[in-house]
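Subject: Sanity check before I submit

Could someone independently write out the structure tokens for this chain? I want to compare against mine line by line before I put it in a report. The sequence has 128 residues.
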Amino acid sequence: MSMFTHIVVGTDDPAASAHFYDATFAAIGIEGGRSGEASYYGSYQSGFFSVQPPRNGEPATFANGGTIGLSADTQDQVNSWHAAGLANGGSDEGAPGRRDMGENKLYGAYLRDPVGNKLCAFTTNVED
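---
Independent answer below. Compare away.
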């Protein structure tokens, strides 16, 4: 069972956000779709991620101090995810590399999407 049913982030540029998220989610093997101005990825069974204009009509803002973590199967997927984000309007917040936490062996990378939301992709399948 997934811990979350869904995560939604706001955007003031749905087209740029869809372009970014289509590329980054495809890099880790997750397909997406559209519903009006919203783009979504994943499913209700596994949990889904959506990006869309705020429903209240106010400008979108990103969470100061917030990060959305995505799971990748391999280090190659993390690398592909990061490269896809940079090539599709994202900015670097931490290049792919080892980020071990105690005995936990981790490999991850960080990006900001085109409107400033911070994301990371991590795998525990770490090559020594």
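---
OP: Matches mine. For the report I'm noting this point. Helices lie at 14-27, 75-87.
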